[in-house]
Amino acid sequence: MLLKNTLNSLKRQLNKESKLTILCEDGTTTQVQFTFNEPATEKELKKLPCDLPTEYKEFLLLHNGARLYEDLKWGDGFELFSVDEILLHYSYYDDWPEGWLPIGAGFDESLVLAPSKDKRGYIFWMQTGVSFDEPEYIGNLKFDEWFNYFCVAQGAKFWEWDRGW
């Protein structure tokens, strides 16, 4: 429910060209664009090497990948991979731990699903040089919660904000 609500609310804000003016962390505004792929099929999902969390599978069945907050001036943004892109990025390493999948990229880093026995969340940020042994979890978040917070933060890395106001 959270994922569909967030997607619907976000899409209602977009203009006819799928663009949106957002307020940036430095107080300026910029125009960003969104591209949502067509839904994945169950057949496509079966190509993946592991089971998917329910919330992430729901996203792929709605949109088989997306480009989010793509800055029209600077060209950066965030990409949630399609099934084929997941498989491509997965092929770059031959030692992925069981159940781990690269699902997105932005800010020169990767968003990865990684099951955890001691955490409710399963999403972490894989920076260059990060070991598979020590994932940097983005809080105790499920995919739908991460997506919601990412949209509320207007495409900013909310997980790095200093919340010690």
From TrEMBL:
Residues 39-149 form the Knr4/Smi1-like domain. This is SMI1/KNR4 family protein. Coiled coil: none annotated. Pfam families: SMI1_KNR4.
